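Worked example

This section walks through a single chain of length 239. The input is the sequence exactly as stored; nothing has been trimmed or padded.
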Amino acid sequence: MKKAGVVILAIFALISAAVAGYFFYLSRLARQELTALNNEKIELTARVQSLTANVAELSKQLADTLARSSQEKEAEIQRLNSAHEALVQELQAEIDNKEIQITQLADRLSVSMVDKILFPSGEADISPAGLKILGRVGNIIKNVQDKIIRVEGHTDNVPIHPRLQKQFPTNWELSTARANNVVRFLQEKVGMDPSRLQAVGLSEYHPLASNETVAGRSQNRRIEIALLPMATAPVAAQK
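Given that input, the structure is written out below as tokens.
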């Protein structure tokens, strides 16, 4: 009986030691996991701080870029305002006679000239008087260096006279030839950078007024010189 008690006590001691060892193992494992979690927390905190600093720097760079862009845009519009005022002052007589119309919308400026002050009827060669007017216009707009100069030729919807159809089969050819001749003059005589110049013939399909009246057709036969932001131009024109 005494021996049985000793055996039971020994077994109990072994079980207690095993349980204690198991709990010690669990405690040690828990401490290791806690240490790992603390290390991970420290690493994540450092990454968050680094990302926060990066976001702050990028925000500052964006704010600086937007401020510079805003200042550049304001300067661009101011230069265009100056060109607008100079054109109005130079061409006041033609504006009063409704031969020229000058319009500005933010960073875009347009000079619209009725065809009769530039070309003889049905022709694409610029008249001597037209050359003088284009020279006055060109000498002002060539100083606006941050713009594409787009020259558009427009006509009314009256078909080309049979005697001219060999040279200009339709209004497409006439409007294009007129735009091309204006562009060549601006390059060769005014000295404008050809990489900024565009010539476009738009025929009769962008009228300003009704073609049902003489006055309306007169408005529609025109050359428009538009100063456009560089970003709106085709890639080829920006090379």
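What to look for: The beta strands are 100-105, 108-114, 147-154, 197-201, 222-229.
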